[in-house]
Structures are given as structure tokens and as C-alpha cells.
Amino acid sequence: MDMLNQILSINNGGAYGGGKAGGAFDPLTFAMKPQVVIRALCWLFSVVVFGCISSEGWAEKEGKEYCLYNGDGMACKYGNMVGVFGFLASMGFMGGEFLFERMSSVKSRKRYVMADMAFSALWAFMYFVAFFYLWSQWSSAPAPPLGIGAGSMKTAIWFCLFSIVVWGLCALMAYKRFLIGAGDEFTSAFETDPANVHVQQAYGYSMDNDNDQYSASPFGQPQQQGMEQQQQSGMEYQQPTY
What we know:
The structure is a single chain. By secondary structure, the protein is mostly helical. It is 69% helix and 3% strand. The protein has eight helices and two strands. A two-stranded antiparallel sheet has the order 1-2. Helix 4 (73-100) runs antiparallel to helix 5 (106-139) and helix 5 packs antiparallel against helix 6.
């Protein structure tokens, strides 16, 4: 659980959990980012899924090709489709992570985070469907001749399961980024609201005060000056002589 919290700790000080725009690029730091590492796993698992199905998912029988998933051609096509689009999307989002640090517009970062969150959640669901679809067809399929392709079919099913986890993590990290950005927008809007600035000035309270201290009361100085005048007048008073 602590490792998961460490992975999801993505606030780097910039808008939507990213770094400051225009900062120096460090390849090692970029490669170690949780988003990049998880995206690399998404890319790898997608390669395994469509690679196993496309290479050994089809066999010939009576001069015709049939899918080893119980002869259901749609199962092989669906598995290939999910794997190929997951592969392409993973590369696209890794490129997006590279450009994310260079986005100076908060709106651009917001659109990227929302697209990341929506697509990652969708593709986690697509792999969820693929896992149960392929598993149900394989469990009722006859054994392939000489067992050729059986290992690849099982591997594709298992990596569909692993892909559900990694794509779900991507959606969760994007959601955390969205919450960070929404909180920043609310804070900046509150601080720049003229009504709130007027109230802060009237009560002598500053949102940027790190010590959470109030400034002097507006009534403090007049009272203090009045007391000093009384003391001075008391010192200058002389008793009359009769």
C-alpha cells in the first residue's frame, strides 16, 4: 500500500502535477517518472497480446484458417485490435508525457489529463472484456494439433489480465492529476477574487502568510496613541498654588 501511495504521489509543484514549464530536461528523471514507467508496461503488455495472437492464433483446417479460440474469429480479431490500439496509444501518451512538462498553458494540460483519464479508463475496460472473452472461448476450445499455439493463447489471456491493472493505474494517476489541477484552480480563483481580497485587507489577513498570523488590528494604533497622550498630559499637569 505504501508503494502504491508513492507511485501516486505525483505533485511536482506545477499545474496538474507536472513540473514547471521551461525547466531543464533530464532523461533519467523522465524515464523514472511513474507515468512513463506504467506506460512502458502498457506498451510491453500490448505487444505481447497482439504478438501472441497474430503469430499463433490462427491455424489451417481443411484449407481454411480458423482461430484457436474455439474457432471464433471475432475473438482473435478483438484481441488483436485491443493490443494494437493499446500499443499505439501507449507510445502516444509517452510522447505526451514528454510534451506535458513543456505545456505553459494550464488549459492544454487540463485537456491532456482529461484525455489520458478517459482513454485509460476505457482501455482498462476493453482489456477487461478481452480477458473474459478470450478466457471463455479458450476454456471450451479443443486442444490444437500437437499443442502448437496453446502457450501463446494462454499468454495472451494472462497479459490481458495484467493490462487491466496497468491501464487502471494510468487512469487513477490521471484522476489524481485532475484533482490537483482542480484544487489549484479553486485556490487561485479564491485569491484573485476582488471580494475576497477586500475582506482580507479589511481584517488584515493575508493568504500568503506562512506563519498564519494576523496583522495588527486597525483599532490598535488609535488606542495606543490615546493612552500615550493621556500619559503625556498627566506628566505635564502641575498642581495649582493657592
